[in-house]
Write a structure and sequence with these properties.
Length: about 475
């Protein structure tokens, strides 16, 4: 960052933009301007492509072991600067420091470390054939574009860049215009760790900058974390040049709590899966289906514990609920709460904006619980992306599964039961990319992460991601004669 103006990071340095347009980056908790951000236009996109092209030549010529060593160093730098980066993330995103300090930077570093370790093991196969053999090689795609959402800005930048770089690609990353700060820091860290200039570039800007990147014919792949509508638009644009896509999109996930569940654990999971990061998590279990036998007991514990959650300045160590990302988003969330009331859902806790103790200049909303919800309510059908939980009653396993699956989304799901057979039977039937049994929202780097249906295409994390950032080439080697019927 150069003083108060944040510029795009291209070819190993911040470059002054040619575009006159800037936007103000606000702290969601205070409304204060953190910096001005230059919007990348066509000249910056071309410059980033040129830098990435040069970076790719150098980087892809290195061995996986060499790349891994450098990436490992980047992970170490991230960990060493955990507090500083966490604070920056809090200012930019409004999430509580108690979360950012243990999750955001660490999970980014975990990811870089993991793919640093895999880089040397990327390989093809050998196929023995009759008087011949064939082999495959796994090759990088070239220039990949990463486009991020604003809820986990640094983590998303790491989850996309780590596998891309480990496989030998170059990346141009465009963070959300609401959270531009930490991806730029990641670029600095990659440079410090020894990643050659141009291998990881950050283009600042809004949807227009993103569109230009997606349209560019030299870009081989686009990985988006964002909403379903943006995913569809990007896929349509990417189709024009037949680019590969990975789509991590929205959801309206269900948690099923059976009567034999450990109630305290299930309540903990429902709270974590609705109120962590002020509810701004794509996988959140915003539809909590509770069996009728334990419905009242579940609600009692849930209401009691949710009432104790501390909303406040995200920089305070004991704050548990921070600020929503923007004024517009807060209005949208409050609009859904009003809709829930109008639709006849029973408001048990929260429901209001918080403006006491100087919080009025930020975007704070109370953690909110609706009970007695019905499947057709807007709060049950649509992604709210805020601290709003809908609780629904069920009596039969088959009914709960059918209702959980009755959505266009398919990102995540959860099952709470002590019955092993039921847990796996239900998990097998839920149409979601991820299903947690007796926990929720845990995303270890070893486990593939991705959505089904309109929640996404492809995965992040785990070994499978190597397939998404490489292309397979086959080579056939003849050891005999060409079988030729011609004279
Ligand atoms: P968004 O779709 O509005 O924007 C995401 C990114 O796409 C931004 O960087 C934006 O500038 C860019 N963009 C928008 N239109 C574009 C276009 N036509 N071409 C190129 N780029 C474009 O999403 P958001 O509001 O930033 O994030 C919230 C959404 O993200 C929610 O729906 C949430 O569920 C989803 N999300 C999904 C995951 C996941 O892993 N599945 C994780 C986090 C967030």
């Amino acid at each position: 960052m150069t003083s108060q103006v944040l510029r795009s990071y291209i070819g190993g340095a911040y470059v002054p933009g040619t575009a006159a347009e800037k936007f103000a980056n606000l702290n969601p908790a205070t409304g204060q301007v953190l910096c001005e951000v230059e919007i990348a236009g066509a000249p910056e996109v071309e410059r980033a492509i040129e830098a990435a092209r040069a970076g790719f030549l150098l980087w892809s010529a290195m061995t996986g072991a060499e790349r891994g060593r450098i990436l490992y160093k980047a992970a170490q730098i991230l960990r060493a600067r955990n507090r500083e980066l966490a604070e920056l993330e809090v200012q930019d995103s409004g999430k509580p420091i108690q979360e950012a300090e243990v999750v955001d930077v660490a999970s980014g570093a975990d990811c870089i470390e993991y793919f640093a370790g895999l880089a040397a093991s990327i390989h093809g196969h050998h196929y023995g054939l009759k008087n011949a053999f064939a082999y495959t090689t796994r090759e990088p795609l070239g220039i990949c574009v990463g486009i991020g959402a604003w809820n986990y800005p640094l983590q998303i930048a790491c989850w996309k860049s780590a596998p891309a770089l480990a496989c030998g690609n170059a990346m141009i990353f465009k963070p959300s215009d609401l959270t531009p700060l930490t991806a730029a820091k990641l670029a600095e860290i990659y440079t410090e760790a020894g990643v050659p200039d141009g291998v990881f570039n950050v283009l600042q800007g809004d949807a227009r900058s993103g569109r230009m990147l997606v349209a560019h014919p030299e870009v081989a792949k686009v990985s988006l974390t964002g909403s379903v509508e943006t995913g569809k638009a990007i896929m349509a644009d990417a189709a024009k040049t037949l680019k590969r896509v990975t789509m991590e999109l929205g959801g309206k996930s269900a948690l099923l709590v059976f009567p034999d569940a450990d109630l305290k654990q299930a309540v903990s999971a429902a709270m974590l899966g609705n109120f962590y990061t002020q509810g701004e998590i794509c996988t959140n279990c915003t539809r909590v289906f509770v069996h009728t036998d334990i419905y009242d007991a579940f609600l009692e514990q849930l209401v009691e514990r949710t009432g104790k959650l501390r909303v406040g300045d995200p920089m305070h160590a004991d704050t548990q609920i921070g600020a929503l990302i923007s004024r517009g988003h807060m209005e949208r969330v409050l609009g859904y709460i009003a809709k829930g009331v109008a639709e006849g859902a029973r408001l048990l806790v929260g429901g209001k904006r918080v403006s006491r103790d100087g919080l009025a200049s930020g975007n704070f909303v109370e953690p909110t619980i609706f009970a007695d919800c019905h499947d057709e309510m807007a709060i049950v059908r649509e992604e709210i992306f805020g601290p709003v939980m809908s609780v629904l009653r069920f009596s039969e396993e088959t009914e709960a599964v059918a209702r959980a699956n009755n959505t266009r989304f398919g990102l995540a799901a959860g099952v709470f039961t002590r019955d092993l057979a039921r847990a796996h039977r239900v998990a097998a039937q839920l149409k979601s990319g991820v299903c947690w049994i007796n926990n929720y929202n845990i995303t270890p780097i070893e486990m593939p992460f991705g959505g089904m249906r309109e929640s996404g295409i492809g995965h992040e994390n785990s070994q499978v991601t190597i397939d998404y950032y490489t292309q397979l080439r086959s080579v056939y080697v003849e050891l005999g004669d060409v079988a030729c019927p011609y004279e």
